[in-house]
Design a protein that fits this description.
Low-confidence stretches: none
GO cellular component, one term: plasma membrane
InterPro entries: FluC
Largest sheet: none
Mean pLDDT: 89
Structural class: mainly alpha
Strand content: under 5%
Organism: Shouchella lehensis
Function: Fluoride-specific ion channel. Important for reducing fluoride concentration in the cell, thus reducing its toxicity.
GO molecular function: fluoride channel activity; metal ion binding
Radius of gyration: 16 Å
Helix content: over 70%
Amino acid sequence: MLTTLLLVSIGGGTGAFLRFIIGEFLTLHYKWSRCFTVIAFINIVGSTVLGVAVAAKPSSVFELFILYLCGGFTTFSTFSLEALQGFLDKEWIKGISYIIVTVIGSMLGFGLGFVILF
């Protein structure tokens, strides 16, 4: 339990730190749009790193660290892993439903939260 807590804290914190630094760098030095370009880049990179880590089948401690690092970098990487797992398990409806519900539900949730406070 303590090991997992440390991995979540260190991995998640490192991922969030990297997201901030990379986002600032791309925005300031390359004038990338934070709204779409930077976020899309971060989501794709995080998903790619998680895919490589899972495919490499490293030790469980390292895999957990990478999972939490990517989760802190972007929760999109974990979403991608779970959606793809549905397809790999040949549960097509489950995978597609998960994608649709997550994307539309997240957008609706954001919209609702925005409207409530606006």
